[in-house]
Write a structure and sequence with these properties.
The chain is α/β, with parallel strands linked by helices. It contains eight helices and four strands, in the order βαβαβααααβαα. It is elongated. The chain starts with a strand and ends with a helix.
Length: 143
């Protein structure tokens, strides 16, 4: 991992542990990506304590990695607006194509940072748990 770029998705406890362990391998840069700006700042500060003088660039990144780029940094309330909800339904349930992939916030993160390694620490159960009603999207499709 020497002189490499590492993208950590979901920089909660697991993501922070991956970042701290990665420091031992002297990467050039570690990107800590979380759902919110506040979580990302906290993760960055926690990891920074373990640098021990190493010159590793720590990059703060945030937003929903499981939606389209325009929705990436919107609040849950904003993504529930009718036009945004329609965009999510189309994104989640359309046939996979190059165009659809390029709409992805995850694709955007990879293109932006060009990581050599990606650690996926996104807790899908937590993502679903953040929803007020995890079945609301499927109900809106049925309706």
């Amino acid at each position: 991992m020497n002189e490499k770029t590492i993208l950590i998705l979901g920089a909660g406890e697991v993501g922070e542990a991956c970042a701290i362990k990665s420091i031992q391998h002297n990467p050039k840069r570690i990107i800590l990506h979380t759902l919110t700006e506040e979580e990302s700042a906290i993760a960055l500060e926690n990891v920074k304590k373990h640098l021990d003088g190493r010159q590793i660039e720590l990059v703060q990144s945030w937003g929903d990695a499981l939606v389209t780029v325009p929705l990436m940094q919107m609040s849950r309330e904003e993504t529930r607006q009718p036009n945004n909800r329609r965009q999510l339904i189309n994104y989640y349930y359309s046939y996979l194509s190059d165009d659809l992939i390029k709409q992805s916030s995850l694709y955007h993160l990879i293109q932006q940072h060009k990581p050599d390694y990606i650690f996926d620490g996104i807790n899908t159960a937590t993502v679903i748990g953040y929803q007020d009603d995890p079945y609301s999207l499927s109900r809106s499709i049925i309706n």
